[in-house]
Amino acid sequence: MAGSRAHGRGATIYAVAERAGVSIATVSRYLHNPAQVREANRQRVQRAIVELGYEPLGAAQTLAARSHEALGLIVPEITGQYYADLIAGFEAAAGERDLSVVLVLAAGRSDLARAARRLAVRVDGLAIMASTGLPRSGVDSLAARVATLVLAGDPATGIECVRAESAEPARELTTRLLSAGRRRLRFVGDPAGAIDVRDRHAGFVAAHAAYGLPAADPVLVPFDESGGRAAAELLLREIPLTEGLVCANDLLALALLERLAAAGIGVPEEIALTGWDDILAARYVRPRLTTVRQPVREIAALAAGLLHDRLTIDRPWGGDHVIPCEVIVRDSCGTSDPGTSHPAHH
Amino acid sequence: MAGSRAHGRGATIYAVAERAGVSIATVSRYLHNPAQVREANRQRVQRAIVELGYEPLGAAQTLAARSHEALGLIVPEITGQYYADLIAGFEAAAGERDLSVVLVLAAGRSDLARAARRLAVRVDGLAIMASTGLPRSGVDSLAARVATLVLAGDPATGIECVRAESAEPARELTTRLLSAGRRRLRFVGDPAGAIDVRDRHAGFVAAHAAYGLPAADPVLVPFDESGGRAAAELLLREIPLTEGLVCANDLLALALLERLAAAGIGVPEEIALTGWDDILAARYVRPRLTTVRQPVREIAALAAGLLHDRLTIDRPWGGDHVIPCEVIVRDSCGTSDPGTSHPAHH
DNA sequence: TTGTATGCGTTATCAT
DNA sequence: ATGATAACGCATACAA
Question: How many Å apart are CA A76 and CA A74, to the nearest integer?
Fold first, then answer.
């Protein structure tokens, strides 16, 4: 059939009705409330449907029923397991509720605002990652049209959001370093970059406060490998050497680790190190990376569930949903006590 | 506004027309062919649109124009960078063409066939990964409805497919080991599992043939870390020890590497090793992993482009699009010659 | 229990 | 250049 453009326009409800010898109303009823149609007709309609391979056209249903049966998801990009899990969790939860998910990647979009507007007229609900780059006003105008919710967002905006609890794990990691006697600690990453990084830094500071210590200024670098390398450059120049690093994510920590090793610095002996995200490589580097595992899939699934609820049941919204993380103690922090540490393999 | 369910149903074309003092036809023309409408009316319509925040309802456009302006993508899951890149590449290419993408994850779907059918009535084109688990007949029936294309698929099915060239890189890697004097080589992974693994194994065999050597049987294990560990168990028991392993992917290779190191086996001295996919961890383990980088984003982007073409221009289809991969020589294969090797950092 | 008829928000044809 | 108006495929109120 190469060369043809005919893609069997698909049978309509009229075709099914005719074939079954009933009206379209009966077919529609059979689809949505079979109990309403007499057994005999049920059979006839059923047969007609399978014979014709009928499947209702989504757009027509949407128009008539005023519901898209779809959720939109806007993420900045898909690099690393974090976003992959986010999308997977969202899609799975949406699928369980028979909702389609329309995905939009903000990265590289010349006109993200337009893409978002277009998305908003194709779905019933919208989940947006806070770091997509959409201006606050843009999110607000979207929220005015469809049920909207922000992932890893700032609860202060008033828009409902779902996020991981970041301060506590950071406090725990920092305390771990502090209680091991290390004092010259640094947080690596820019607290102003994202709400969750701000919280992680807050935990870093809180741990110091509990010890009656001041927290040094954060090392301001990008959240990727280049940032880790840059941080290494900076830190290796300092005297006396830093004793512990709480990194904003694993990418940063990994690159740092590599550079420190290359410089002959012992990790964790001389410098202890922690990451964030528990990416795959964290288990394979030496020393294995102590890090924090965010319940990303759960967060995304909760988001999809909340959106669905908002569409189906009448509940108040605007809340701030916070989900706790899990600290994974391995070797890089130099304080792994086998008793509470996490097994290397899932 | 918490508690309310009012999500401003959105202005309609009627509202815009009324506000601008023209008919809906003029508004529609303004949207699709502004040149047809007089300057004065253009202004009035434009104003009305921004004042009302009008955006055409997707479903209504779909119904009237008989086009969804959307592409569907079905992938088995999103674990690892491979699927992430696939989705990212597809979405980016679709977005450039103003097409939405509706994503379906096969993993965990109790009724994948139904999800696929539902997807097919919501999009104009469909890209399906070969390994989703959809039966051949299912794919065929989808292809009868919408433009369909298979990713990493078998060209023998007759359905258009886009895939990476797998045999050649495998042949190259194997030859590398062979030319270093290693003879007891094994392919790790099940060639029957997927079309591209079959091709990789074919390359492994071809390299042996060129040396007039028989290829040993592949080590049949799952394509994940558990498979790598299982393979290590098996291989460590063999005497004499294998000298080189061509693994079906990096996950496998990484887990194997770890187990071999734990057993005191020198890599690459005693056993040389290669992976496939060039995941992040491949650059961070020691020895750094020699592997193959697939142009996943390009493959996915090509798929989206092909689907779009099929919808817009009348071209013959049914082809088999093959894209070459890049071999990344690092340390684990024991034959890294700095001259042709790839830099460690992008 | 079933059929008829109307409306959903667009696009596009046909007059004007 | 513009305005009626008929599809598009389905859900549903209403009548029978």
Answer: 7
Is A308 (CB) below 7 Å from strand D? no
* Amino acid occupying residue B103: L
Please indicate whether, in this complex, the C-beta atoms of A101 and B101 are within 8 angstroms of each other. Answer: no
Calculate the alpha carbon distances from A86 to A103, B227, B280 in Å.
12, 26, 19
A135 touches chain B (CB under 8 A): no
* A2 SS3 class: coil
User: Which residues in chain A belong to E strands, given as ranges?
Assistant: 70-75, 100-105, 125-129, 147-151, 161-164, 185-188, 244-247, 272-274, 291-293, 320-323, 326-328
Q: What is the pLDDT of residue B8?
A: 59
Name the closest residue (CA) to the C1' of nucleotide D12: A25
- pTM here is 0.94
Q: Look at residue B214 in the predicted model and tell me its pLDDT.
A: 97
A157: which DSSP letter? G
pLDDT digit string (tens) for chain A, length 346 residues: 333 344 557 899 999 999 999 999 999 999 999 999 999 999 999 999 999 999 999 999 999 999 999 999 999 999 889 999 999 999 999 999 999 999 999 998 989 999 999 999 999 999 999 999 999 999 999 999 999 999 999 888 889 999 999 999 999 999 999 999 999 999 999 999 899 999 999 999 999 999 999 999 999 999 999 999 999 999 999 999 999 999 999 999 999 999 999 999 999 999 999 999 999 999 999 999 999 999 999 999 999 999 999 999 877 777 899 999 999 999 999 987 643 434 444 3
How open is the CA angle A235-A239-A243, to the nearest 5 degrees? 60
Give, in degrees to the nearest 5, the angle at Cα A263 between A257 and A269. Answer: 60
Query: Block means of pLDDT (10 residues each) for chain B, length 346 residues?
Result: 51 97 97 96 97 97 97 95 96 97 95 96 96 92 94 90 97 97 97 94 98 97 96 95 97 97 96 97 97 98 96 82 97 73 40
Closest nucleotide to A28: CA versus each C1'? D11
Residues 156-215 of B with CB under 8 A from A: none
**How many Cβ atoms sit within 10 Å of the Cβ of residue A229?**
17
How far B30 CA sits from the closest chain A CA (Å)?
17
**CA B102/CA A99 separation, integer angstroms:** 11
Q: Is A250 an interface residue toward B (CB < 8 Å)?
A: no
Cβ distance A80 to B79 less than 8 Å, yes or no, reads no
Biggest CA-to-CA distance, chain A? 88
What is the spatial distance between Cα A323 and Cα B216, in angstroms, rounded to a whole number? 51
Nearest to residue A73, comparing CAs of B59, B54, B91, B298?
Answer: B91
A92/B87 Cβ within 8 A? no
Nucleotide nearest to A29 (CA to C1'): D11
Residues of A within 8 A of B51 (CB-CB) are none
Please name the residues in contact with A81: beta carbons below 8 A apart, sequence gap of 6 or more: A277, A279, A280, A296, B79, B80
Distance in Å, alpha carbon of A286 to nearest chain B alpha carbon: 8
Give per-residue pLDDT as tens, A53-100: 999 999 999 999 999 999 999 999 998 899 999 999 999 999 999 999
CA distance A20 to chain B (A): 22
- The reply to whether A31 Cβ lies less than 7 angstroms from strand D is yes
Q: For nucleotide C13, give the residue with the nearest CA to its C1'.
A: B25
CA dist., res. A274 & res. A188, Å (int): 10
Between chain A and chain B, how many beta carbons pairs sit less than 8 Å apart? 179
